[in-house]
Amino acid sequence: MAEAPVRYLGFARKWRPQSFDELVGQPHISQTLKAEVEKGRISHAYLFAGPRGVGKTSTARILAKAVNCEKGPTPTPCAQCAHCQGIAAGSDLDVIEIDGASNNGVDQVRDLREHVHHVPFASRYKVYIIDEVHMLSIAAFNALLKTLEEPPRFVVFVFATTEPERIPQTIKSRCQVFNFRSITVEDIVSRLDHILTREGVEAEPSERAAVLETIAISAEGGMRDAQVALDQVISLSEGTLRLADVRDFLGVADTASLFSIVENIRDRKTAELLQTVRDLTERGRDLERFAKQILAFLRDLMVLQCAPGADLVRLSGASLDRARRLAAALDPALLINAISVLLDLEARMKQGTQTRILLEFALARLTAFDALRPIAELIQQLESAGPGVSAAEASAAAKARPRPFASPPPAPNPARYETAESFEGPALFAGPEPIPPPLSPGPPPQARAIPLQQGGALEPVGCDDIAALQAMLAQTIRSHDPSLGRTLEAVPLERIEGRTAYFGKPGQPINPYDAKRLDKPETKRAVCDTLAQLTGLQDLSIRIQGRPSLEVAQPPPPPPQSAPPPPVAPPRQPRIEEIERPEAEEAPAADEDPALYDGDAEAYEITPEEARRALGRRGLSAQRIRQLLRENEALRSKIELARKFFDGAILDGEGNPVET
């Protein structure tokens, strides 16, 4: 009969702590639990929270030994009795370990509630250890509340979790919470050195400390991760541990590579940085771990800058002396920016798969930073420039400095006409206009030439050349306010008499929107100022000819329905603003004020308030509304949809409902 194979026991299981004294890196927890057991103040529920591999489950088993040892309850279990050996082997019937990830339903909690009242088989306490308890569902937590609050006197619950924030507060309030810490590098190195000594593993005498420190740093505070890595490194080695083998296995970079990276960032050598990333990739290094190494190294440099005498860094010997010289030569602003960029890189690497591209982009971004100047230096430069330099000049000089990756300014458009004031000074419509000075007696100033943007000058525009003046007025205003430019094209300048500019043609109706826009005080100021710049005439006033009209031509009566008309292509649906206005002017309605018009009924000169009242009284008639609904299918469908949803009605200008 073949012999049973001998099962190898890994370091993480073989060297698991078996007592509170062997628990590494958690003195605050071991001392508290030892005191509770010694004083007989054993709680009914404990919650152990902390990162992975720091001893949560091991502490739960040690606690179970302490309360069930034949010599106990005692803070120092004997490890010789049947209970201690059964708990260590995982075969004790009174210590039940449950995986919360696979038993997270309410049915499993109901089974636990049924069995929790059964007395222990042979031990003093029945201990339930639920690992990864945060994986339980909300219903399972709720089903556990009553049992957890008032369990039998012989039951002890021990919960372990790596995500305590996911535990309901109602569960936390019923437990004693113990927060486990990440184990320090020094404690991990000490424990690994003890394991190497007990296992009889040889290492290069000059590299032993560096080997253990490299493994401890890569474990990131977890003792179990460090023990597993040490176990693998020993299996891969040829009898003696070497630092190069450890780095190749863990995929970490050496200290010289870290110094080279930071020096190339300081000297803005992007090509060398990208070549370093390529070499690391070809050698199979873990780029995500390498980014963490750079971040930790930059942190050490920052600490050496801020507190050079403090023992807060992990470097030693020649590496520490070189790091101090490098920290003294680095700009603090560059160091802070580098740490910020690498923190952002670390978060991106956790979410993406293109780690090489992300690392190369971050390093190229660091070398693209321009040299930063302290604010104190800028203030000193301003003060040394003397009182003649204003803040505006300093700001303009700062804006004039070239910046990296800045695009050139757009080329000026030679076809655009601008006045001297609009080209060199503030925009016409940039804000409230200043109060003009009082007019001095004398003849009006002569018309001034209007310069082009690129060379040459136009001839002065006289008031008799209305077509050219209107074109330049509309173009100049459109460059600042396109909407007002379109209004001036619809209501053009007709003539200038004296100091009055007439807009609109006599006898031609004006769109109500254009009339209202031209009547605004700010519009009049803008138009008058532009005319003054174009013609040289000051203190101009505006007079609008014609009158606003909402009336449109009535459609002809429909033909008799004696015979169906032949099918024709449907005409384009006209918009309301495109419908022709009547050629003949209608007389004012009975409710309109005749004083709105002057003697010849041509010039439109009323105050804005009177115009608003007059326009408010004018509305579409019922006949016109029915015509629009017949001609515009889209408008009719929208109105019918609105009436269907809101149960509304259509009203004419007098407020009466319209039957459609």
Tell me about this structure.
By secondary structure, the chain is of the alpha/beta class. The protein folds into five domains: 11-179, 3-Layer(aba) Sandwich (Rossmann fold); 185-250, Helicase, Ruva Protein, domain 3 (Orthogonal Bundle), CATH 1.10.8.60; 255-367, Zinc Finger, Delta Prime, domain 3 (Up-down Bundle), CATH 1.20.272; 421-427 and 461-552 and 585-618, DnaA, N-terminal domain (GMP Synthetase, Chain A, domain 3, 2-Layer Sandwich); 621-660, no CATH class. It is 47% helix and 7% strand. The protein is built from 27 helices and eleven strands. The protein has a five-stranded parallel β-sheet with strand order 2-3-4-1-5, covered by helices on one side. Strands 8-9-10-11 form a four-stranded mixed β-sheet. A two-stranded parallel ribbon has the order 6-7. A hairpin with a 2-residue loop joins strand 8 and strand 9 (500-503). Helix 3 runs antiparallel to helix 4 and helix 21 (466-480) packs antiparallel against helix 22. The radius of gyration is 44 Å and the shape is elongated. The N and C termini lie far apart (103 Å). The model is unreliable at 402-460, 550-556 and 573-606 (pLDDT under 50).
